[in-house]
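thought: fold this chain, then report.
action: predict
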Amino acid sequence: MKRLNTEDLHELKEHIENNYAGDYASLSLELSKAVYLLHYLEKDVIGQYDIQNTCFALQRLNECFHHAHYKKWKEQFN
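observation:
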């Protein structure tokens, strides 16, 4: 499997800066909403394991943003 480097994540960083004004807390909230809403999809249309795997991936991504920007968030909400 290919290892990611910072150049590979440049487009993601640009997207966050352009669409969320660099506000990772706002992005985190949207990811949390997506995970929550995925639980309401009909299981007949999409398999239960597909939903679980997608929720897991989104939640892990959300946690990575949280850990990477914890100090910024702490300052933002104090």
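thought: worth noting. The chain has a mean pLDDT of 83.
final: tokens above.
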